[in-house]
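2024-03-11 09:14:02 DEBUG pipeline.ingest accepted 1 chain
2024-03-11 09:14:02 DEBUG pipeline.ingest length=298
2024-03-11 09:14:03 DEBUG pipeline.predict start
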Amino acid sequence: MRRYLGMTTEPAFEPFSITVGGRLVEFRRPAVMGILNITPDSFYDGGRHLAPADMLAHAHRLLDDGADILDLGAASSRPGATLPHPDEEAARLTEAIRLLRTELPDAILSVDTCWATPARAAIEAGADIINDISGGQFERDRSGANDPEGSSMFATVASLQVPYLLMHTRGLPGEMQQLTGYDDIIDDLTKYFSARLDTLYRLGVKDIWLDPGFGFAKSLEDNYVLLDRLDELTTLFRQPLVAALSRKSMIYRRLGCTPDDALHGTVALDAIALLKGARILRVHDPRPALDTIKLLFP
């Protein structure tokens, strides 16, 4: 019997599945989402994959290194960023997804967006999953509605019948770091997810993943409290939980380095997240993530 961080049993993993492009995909080990940014200003690799040839080459590398899903983003959501107009984002995404779908017809493509217009355009161009860092809030706030049902993002996901990644945050990227601090961060996230899940299920959305939003409207201390208590969320909710820790400031600030030097810290925190029940890792570097998964779930 092996021991993991003092535990006398092997970590358990509950398989999960999603429906993409009319086919059922089952994951019998934690899944890896490879980050593919086509933005000039992302905090880590902004501007590196803007040219179509560079984007396609990086997509191939991510898949060759073990990514199960490619998560494509055309708008930086780092703290302090200014979001592009939805029409501009939609144009970027549509062109990129058509290229990827032609080159990689069997790849599972996720689109990282917080607006309904680019989300719909991306799915119609061939994407499979909507990854919404706003949890429907940005569309709701723009419309002036007072509850999640006012979100045209939720209605869009329901009409498209695609898997949806629901993330926790507060405020737009330009203001989120002024909205940190929680009396009880797990209680806050529980209420946030519960209200939105109720709305999404009533609208008919079937495949939903949860992302606690490390780095979004959370101080350095908030992030580590959240990581320490992540198992409480994975116990409370049956939806697969995504850990998106890759090279974030909670790692490089604590280590006193830059995002370029934060890979080892990412691997360490990914391992903790997996042991606390995360079932998807969203990363810039799939191979170390997959190696971590193989060691913990042989």
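2024-03-11 09:14:41 DEBUG pipeline.report The radius of gyration is 18 Å.
2024-03-11 09:14:41 DEBUG pipeline.predict end
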